[in-house]
Amino acid sequence: MLEKIARPEEVRRWPGGMPVRHRYTPGVGGDAFFTALRERGILLGSHCAHCGYRYVPARLFCERCFSELSADTEVGPAGELVSFTIVFVGIEGEPLDRPDVLGAVRLDGADAVLIHRVLEPGEEPLQIGERLEVVVKTGSERTGSILDIEGFRRTD
Amino acid sequence: MARRVAVVGAGMTKFVRRAQETGKELAWEASREALASCELALDRVDAVCLTSAPDAFDGVHMKGEYLSDGAGAFGRPFMRTYVGGGSGVFTAIQAYYTVASGMADVVLAVAEEKMSSTQPHPQGAFLTIFDNVLERPLGPNLLWIFALEMNRYMTVHGLDKRDIASVAVKNKRNAADHPAALLGQADITVEDVLASETLAWPVQRLDVSPISDGAVALVVASEEAAKEISNDPIWIQGVGWNLDTAYWTNRDLVFPEYVANAARMAYDMAGVTEPRKQIHVAEPYDPFDYKELHHLEGLLLFDKGKAPEAARDGVLDRKGDLPSCPSGGLLGVGNPIAAAGLMKIAELFWQLRGEAGARQVPGTPERGVAQAWGDLMQVGTVVVMGRDGGPPTTATEVETPPLATPATSLSDAEFRSATGAVDDAIGAEYEWDAGVAVGRFLDGLREGRIMGRECRNCGRVLVPPRMFCERCFRGTDAWVQVEHTGVVQTFSICHVSWDMQHLDEPQLPAVIAIDGSDGGFLHMLGEVTPDDASIGMAVEAVWKPVGKRTGSILDIAYFKPKAEA
């Protein structure tokens, strides 16, 4: 029953897609986080008094116990490198001019980790467990975006 | 032996046009309220059943996993089910069998939808429910399906549009008593509906439910757990679901047999032998006003074609003989797709407990039915719930539920300027294969022939052709050339594009039954004015010139009225 495809160029194929775009709004927790980042250059998290877990970015609720949370905890700016990777290829597999270094950092005062770029790590290899700190753009450059954070830099 | 299962708690957010809350924040608000309504902590929940309609609405791939923390699924067995518009009622069915099977004692069932993320219009996410090869080249619009079905329903039964419009009036008036409603309106009239903009005749603006954001949650428990948690559990007495053919042009557009099959399954389980007498309150699915009537007939609560006069005569009013959509339904409360279906189950829960406040139907309803519909417009999902002889809540004064209705509505300006908002596109581009049968069909069109596949077991000639017969579940036997003439089964006069832009010239999409076959397909009418088009009209294909044919459904330019022999 299956027909052998002898001339693939004649296979009936129809190009198409889904003509949709999206506008992602950050919600109640995200609004508090991004407003504080833009206005004050600080990172706000949420502390669950019931579970003890400290989330960052701030959240409206605790997923562990369903308690309502607020953006009540300033975290960082320094923290501990939990893991990192060095990315040599882009999304299409193309080599990058400069490797991207991404770090997962547990900021002081948080249990959750934050992912962002590691800025100019230099020659010395990164070590899991070492101290990094958040670099935030200057006030006039901040728009209320995760890119208001430039990245993490080594504290020395 | 399945265990008895009850609903013991319900909660929902307001249904709003644009929620400030993220999808998971909406899910949490509804879930927290459902748990609070029966004074239960999250740690009593054994498993979580979640539903949400297409990922493309939120623009989040694997939306179930994304929403899971807001639904209380952290560290628990979790599964998202999805049957399109039928999802909301289906997630109650999923919760039912998760508990009935003994897999869990207490389940949180959650339904969430956030349609406001989709730009420029959520209809863009619906376009791929049309066949990408045979239908999308025609430039379809979701409204076509409803308009085509509604026209045939009205024409075959000789229905008056006023009677159908009275459903929109009833539901928007009922919703005026719903604290979570988006479009409640106590003073709306049939004239308002009939005067609203015609989108795709016979569908007008106020025949349609609104795009919405929202979430609903239920707490579902085993008999033992239910009796410990609640003095007034509402029992899930029967569940049913059923699918019709995926070829909507090969389906009976007048009577939803798949809803009837789902209803029979649920009624059999519930021991309901005379639904019209034993069902006291109904929440049929009402994304369009005619759909409520269509579904009431599918639920075997009215004879075929008789639900519209019941609407006209007040039988379906909150104080009527068979209250239908006392909540206000999708037309009044709103239509965040998956959440809207579960809202219907929540309404039955409140109605059967006697706790619906200003929305309470009179008397002491013993049993109700809720239903939703969707997938490729061919799934029916049905749940029968009842008090099983237990007394309704004895409270004499009750507030109208839901009692706490969070969800913050954003204005368009607030939505556009929201701090931290990101605009993006998934950018999914595809190349769809026509496949074996449709590939040959398209080759035939290039040669000026319409080809079908014959099944010698059931004797049908399938158009569009397929290499297997879905009824006999065997390979089809031979190619046959069918006529290039046919009969208009239904048509619409469409004034808007899929992104709701006004068209200068209306389009005339039609379902054509092809002569010499047992099927047909969607195409356009031409060389006929909208006033002269009719159901039952004989038509013939108008082919593109030979040199301009490419092996496409567009090799037929359109169908025109058949020349006199």
Keywords:
heterodimer, A: 156 residues, mainly beta, five-stranded antiparallel beta sheet, three-stranded antiparallel beta sheet, 1 helix, 9% helix, extended, B: 565 residues, alpha+beta, Peroxisomal Thiolase, Chain A, domain 1, 2 domains, nine-stranded mixed beta sheet, 24% strand
Beta-strand content bin of chain A: 35-45%
Helix content of chain B: 25-40%
Please name the CATH architecture of the largest domain in chain B. 3-Layer(aba) Sandwich
What's the shape of chain B? globular
Give the total of beta strands of chain A.
10
Radius of gyration of chain A: 22 Å
- What multimeric state do the chains show? heterodimer
The low-pLDDT segments of chain B are: none
Output the helix-strand order of chain A. EEHEEEEEEEE
Helix-strand category of chain B: alpha+beta
Task: Trace the largest sheet of chain B across and list its strands.
Answer: 3-2-4-8-1-9-12-11-10
Major beta sheet summary of chain A: 5 strands, antiparallel
CATH class value of the largest domain in chain B: Alpha Beta
Regions with little confidence, pLDDT below 50 for 5+ residues of chain A: none
Task: Round the mean pLDDT of chain A to the nearest integer and report it.
Answer: 92
Distance between termini of chain B? 65 Å
Principal-axis shape of chain A equals extended
Category from helices, strands and their pairing of chain A: mainly beta
Number of strands of chain B: 26
